[in-house]
Automatic annotation (TrEMBL):
This is C2H2-type domain-containing protein. GO terms for molecular function: transcription cis-regulatory region binding; zinc ion binding. The keyword Glycoprotein does not apply. Residues 111-139 form the C2H2-type domain. The chain crosses the membrane at residues 230-253. Keywords: Membrane, Metal-binding, Signal, Transmembrane, Transmembrane helix, Zinc, Zinc-finger. The keyword Zinc-finger applies. It comes from Arachis hypogaea (Peanut). InterPro entries: Znf_C2H2_type.
Length: 277
């Protein structure tokens, strides 16, 4: 009886090992069917052909563009001021502008190329696609790299990089401040009128004065689009909460006044009835 049990155990183990071996062999030799996994490879695999070398950081250029849109553009719109094409902050002076405008974001992991409609699961793969397939849409003129202005525009503050938390370098702060002041002079000449003069002052406060190692002045001290939108949301929420409470207060006051009036009338009638005839 014991021998039969031992034989059955050995046979069962042999069967399991054989089954695992057959599965491994079949999976390693199985051909890839057409379109099987192709979509993922098409979407995620970085392209290696036609690489066009560009000495300008797309990521930092994007950060500079974000800073301009959030912390400068609201003031330009308020003054109805048009930047000169000679100003390095002008949208045309961004070599990646055309490509960035041809990005289609359909979802968090769903990006599409506006030129050829190819899909990607991450923005970085779309960036690589632009570099490899659509480099002819880059504006390679001199002075078109927005990343070169990142020092003046405090890009590290919006990128939340380790550089924004590193020890301040006085020489770098001085160099960035000079670049910042030159941008203020070229983009908002005081001689161009009151609007340019006001924007010149705003630009100095918003960007240039923070280029110091004292730590007293923070960048974007005048606020921007983000702060204004948050203020609007908070204000709207407070109104939605306080308005019903206000009407409830009015209702309770009116109800108390009405009950008090009725009580006074009742007391008055009782006083009249108690008088002798």
């Amino acid at each position: 009886m014991n021998k039969a049990i031992d034989f059955a155990s050995v046979f069962l183990l042999f069967t399991l090992f054989s089954h695992q071996f057959i599965l491994r062999v079949s999976s390693s030799n199985s051909p890839i069917l057409p379109n099987q996994g192709y979509a993922d490879e098409r979407i995620l695999k970085p392209e290696q052909e036609h690489v066009h070398e560009v000495h300008c950081s797309r990521e930092r250029s994007r950060a500079a563009r974000k800073v301009i849109e959030e912390y400068l553009t609201p003031f330009l719109e308020q003054e109805n001021y048009q930047l000169s094409s000679k100003c390095r902050l002008h949208p045309e002076n961004d070599m990646f502008r055309d490509q960035e405008e041809h990005k289609i974001c359909l979802g968090f992991h769903d990006w599409k190329c506006g030129y050829c409609k190819k899909s990607f699961r991450d923005e970085k793969f779309l960036d690589q696609h632009f570099d490899n397939r659509h480099s002819n849409h880059l504006n390679l003129s001199d002075g078109k790299c927005l990343a070169d202005l990142c020092g003046a525009l405090h890009c590290d503050a919006v990128m939340n990089t380790k550089f924004s938390r590193s020890k301040c370098n006085p020489a770098a702060a001085t160099r960035n401040k000079h670049l910042c002041e030159s941008l203020a002079e070229s983009c908002f000449p005081v001689s161009d009128g009151p609007s340019a003069s006001r924007l010149h002052e705003i630009f100095l406060h918003q960007f240039c004065e923070a280029h110091t190692c004292s730590g007293k002045q923070k960048p974007f001290s005048r606020g921007g689009k983000v702060q204004k939108s948050i203020f609007v949301v908070v204000s709207g929420a407070l109104i939605l909460v306080l308005l019903p409470l206000f009407y409830l207060f009015l209702y309770l006051v009116q109800r108390d006044m009405k009950s008090s009036t009725q009580e006074l009338r009742r007391i008055s009638k009782m006083g009249r009835k108690s008088k002798p005839s």
